[in-house]
Design brief:
11 helices; 22% strand; BirA Bifunctional Protein, domain 2; 8-stranded mixed sheet; 366 residues; 3-stranded antiparallel sheet; binds phenylalanine; single chain; 2 domains; alpha+beta
Amino acid sequence: MSDLDQIQAEALARLGAATSLADVEALRIELLGKQGSISALLKTLGKMSPEERQEKAPKIQALREAVADALAARKDAMEAAALEQRLAAETLDLSLPAPATPQGSVHPVSQVLDELAEIFADLGFSVATGPEIEDDWYNFTALNMPESHPARAMHDTFYFPDEAPRGGRMLLRTHTSPVQVRTMLADGAPLRIIAPGRVYRSDSDATHTPMFHQVEGLVIDRDIHLGHLKWTLETFLKAFFERDDIVLRLRPSYFPFTEPSVEVDVGYAVEKGRRVVGGSGDAPGHAWMELLGSGMVNRKVIEFSGLDPDEWQGFAFGVGVDRLAMLKYGMDDLRAFFDGDVRWLRHFGFSAFDQPTLSGGVGARA
Ligand code: PHE
């Protein structure tokens, strides 16, 4: 074996014994660096005779190349292994189980509001909103309740000291009906909206809280009549209570902003101490329960809202959302809705994953 073969064999053996990138680098410097032993061999070529150089040069070059290639290959392999190891160590375990109990629940009022939006969206209604701190004009005057109107007294209104821009004082809206006026003024006609939200009245017992929720319905179009109102309410209540035997009774009533006005009762029976909606209130074991106020929008309201009442008519209704929730899901004290007691929420709340859809039945399983 020639000297050069000997040097190459030794270099490769030491490379084979290297265990780290640092070992490989140290070896590269020792052999191929400026002061390296193979580099020194290359330098000897300069002092050789041309004949000798012709013979030795290719062999020394071949040695240098073989050692350099082996060093590079070993370095690549070590780097690849290090990367493999890092990737393995940093793996995310996506099979970890979810927390045993999902935390939090959807409040029954939110649940019912979602159900209402879903049902009415299917009938072509969009959702409109208005401010809870309202101007006297929108809450009363534009709804055909001028300053001296006796109906104002029925609302137990919370007033602010601040004067309202259009006269009277600012107030907490006592119903969602001002959204009728705001929407007609903003969007004109035709219209199909529901307006859900908080309303306020100075009143408190098991079935009344100073803040509660209503949903307003408003349809404005040509040739709208009471039949459209009745069909819409029936269709809505059948979808909401998820039963076909909903029977409504329309009773003449009075609201300043509708003419004629109708109070709508729904038939129910008491089962296991709970009111269950369904059947005629005149059937044996059944009775009528007052559910909501409605009527044909008063011409004066249409005028106040900037539309021509000879061209546009409509119907409107207002219903208590909390009441609907109590009837559907069986709570009997409204005050508990707003106590923020987590035990109550755990019992009556809904899963956030249970989105109401018409195809799945809008009701949720508590
Ligand atoms: N705003 C009325 C109330 O709060 C309900 C209602 C709405 C009646 C729309 C008729 C039309 O009692």
